[in-house]
């Protein structure tokens, strides 16, 4: 630590009132046994038998848990969570620490990461605008500065297809060269656009970081708690009169495989991640066992007021345009580059939600 002393591991269920300058470690960092150390030589970076340690952010999330489970078979993984303090964390979380505090650098200094898989982002519905910006944009900028300072060799960044924005003028199939128009169309996802712009700048300015930016379609499946997954889990879900846009979904296990594949094969760039199949929104609701609740679609202000009146069933405002206009992304570049094909079908994915009803 900065005072030359090592912080003691935080007890399970540490209070949220603990100092923000303290690295809240849920469990002590995993150490290899003597037998493991003899069996597996220390890693020397990308391409070696053991590739050193990998930092995974957002480690409490369902996607991160799947990614870490896949990585642990071959790599040493350290999971960090920065999105708040809670009583209990899954075993995938080793540290709870704010990226913008000094102790975060101690995590880098202690472990010597060779790669970062950045999966954590505070969504619009989870916090205030200022806190989201501080964590998502300012915190990620510091993460990248530390990556440069400590010689990290590769960064995988999770973005979202929402950066393209939902608009009637969108092409029928959106590739990676299409502009990110969401910042002009919906203020709620400005943070996501700024976050990706930050990674894009570093992608070209610092090629030594080997940055890959992944823009997945709707991630869904067991454990996922994003807005679209909550919609599919509800007995009642809203839809707009006269609109049923096509949508794409990828199973959380397939997305975890995509993240690990992009890490292991290391082809820097920007990639959409999506299967070839898609489904109309209203058909997806029916296949997921949801009862459709039709709401007026015009004028837009009336549609938003009607959605808000649903209370706990209401989606965030920014999703309303995604219930009107299709945003179908072309995932062929990722599929070709990384030889990737989803293992879970769309029918299987939606059947999971039907089984929850």
From TrEMBL:
SUPFAM superfamilies: NAD(P)-binding Rossmann-fold domains. Gene3D superfamilies: NAD(P)-binding Rossmann-like Domain. Signal peptide: none annotated. Residues 54-274 form the NAD-dependent epimerase/dehydratase domain. Residues 1-49 are annotated as: Disordered. This is NAD-dependent epimerase. It comes from Salinisphaera orenii MK-B5.
């Amino acid at each position: 630590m900065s005072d030359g002393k090592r912080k003691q591991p935080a007890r399970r269920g540490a209070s949220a009132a603990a100092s923000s300058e303290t690295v809240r470690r849920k469990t002590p960092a995993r150490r290899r046994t003597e037998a493991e150390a003899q069996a597996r030589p220390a890693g020397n970076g990308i391409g070696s038998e053991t590739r050193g340690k990998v930092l995974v952010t957002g480690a409490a999330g369902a996607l991160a848990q799947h990614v870490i489970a896949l990585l642990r078979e071959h790599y040493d993984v350290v999971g960090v969570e920065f999105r708040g303090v809670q009583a209990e964390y899954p075993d995938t979380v080793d540290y709870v620490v704010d990226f913008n505090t000094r102790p975060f650098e101690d995590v880098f200094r202690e472990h010597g990461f060779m790669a970062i898989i950045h999966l954590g982002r505070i969504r619009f519905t989870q916090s205030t605008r200022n806190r989201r910006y501080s964590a998502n944009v300012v915190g990620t900028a510091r993460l990248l500065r530390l990556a440069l300072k400590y010689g990290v060799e590769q960064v995988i960044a999770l973005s979202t297809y929402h950066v393209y924005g939902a608009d009637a003028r969108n092409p029928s199939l959106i590739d990676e060269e299409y502009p990110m128009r969401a910042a002009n169309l919906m203020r709620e996802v400005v943070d996501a656009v700024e976050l990706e712009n930050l990674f894009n700048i570093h992608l070209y300015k610092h090629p030594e970081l080997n940055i890959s930016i992944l823009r997945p379609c709707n991630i869904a499946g067991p454990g996922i708690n994003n807005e679209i997954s909550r919609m599919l889990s509800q007995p009642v879900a809203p839809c707009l009169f006269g609109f049923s846009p096509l949508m794409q979904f990828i199973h959380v296990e397939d997305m975890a495989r995509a993240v690990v594949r992009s890490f292991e094969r290391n082809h820097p760039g920007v990639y959409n991640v999506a299967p070839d199949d898609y489904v109309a929104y209203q058909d997806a609701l029916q296949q997921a066992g949801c009862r459709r609740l039709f709401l007026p679609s015009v004028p837009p202000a009336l549609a938003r007021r009607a959605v808000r009146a649903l209370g706990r069933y209401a989606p965030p405002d920014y999703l309303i345009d995604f219930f009107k206009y299709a945003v179908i992304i072309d995932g062929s570049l990722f599929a070709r580059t990384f030889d990737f094909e989803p293992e879970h079908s769309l029918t299987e994915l939606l059947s999971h939600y039907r089984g929850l009803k």
